[in-house]
Amino acid sequence: MRRFGEKIAWRSAVLGTLLGFFPILGWPQKYTKSDREFAERMLRDVAADVQQRYYDPKLHGIDWNVRVQAAKRNIDTADSLNSAVSEIAALLDSLNDSHTSFSLPPRGNAHDYGFKMKMIGEHC
Hints:
Blueprint: H1 2-26, H2 33-53, H3 64-76, H4 81-93
Helix pairs in contact: 2-3, 2-4, 3-4
């Protein structure tokens, strides 16, 4: 009888652990209206900066306004902020210029793991 109780306890512990991790793995963060507005503001700023400051006024023959409108449509239908930001990066990548890139804004949170790593001598 004790063996049956141990099996149930073990299975309950495993099931509880799996169900505890399910919310973390299963539900992505929502793409809110403020996220969409943030991405659209970044797109407007990037598009204006490229038109004003890019070294080639013809933008390598690319129809920039059409590409910006396509990126805006994709941002409107994106399902996450990461997808929206990748549309802006893809827009700049269409210039095929190694000196033009998109750097993500810094994250609002920082993690402190309680220790710092550093080199001591010539070996890590």
